[in-house]
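Hey,
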Amino acid sequence: MGLSSRWQLTVYTRGRMVTGARQWNDVSIVPRLQYRFRPRMNILLGHFHTWALGRDEAWHETDRPYAGVEFGLWRTRQWTLSHRTLWERFFVHGGPDWNRYRTQLQLYGQLRPYHPYASVEAFFDQHGSRTTRYRSGLRIDVGRHHGIEFGYWYERRKVAGPGLRHMLVVSVHLYFPGLAPDS
């Protein structure tokens, strides 16, 4: 029994720092399972476990499972334009649980070992629009199954501390392709 190339597990850890702060704002560990349903369509399942610094200067934990779909809209040998839509369920330790929906348009470079990206992402909940986030960055392959990412995120928040947020992001990625048995 061989392994299917349709499945890929990615595990990454991410730290975000809001500019002007001298410490991490949040740290997440994220396993993501991706299934290539069609050549230009992926099913995404994952889970964020996040430790975030609250307004009370204490660290708070949140679990956030998610599911969604990603479509390849346009592709050349070096660039891909994709659209992703996700449903997320927030389980806040010591707080109310809630749903969030997000949709993202991303341009992603495949200039191995360098992968520049730029995206715009809109967030919604039961009350409507929450925020729009703009992201840019660079992921660098370190070997065949590892990567490191450096990014800058900008958003104008409408809720949870409205105002501008400039974020610096560092992520470490581990890739595990072909984990499911062929059927």
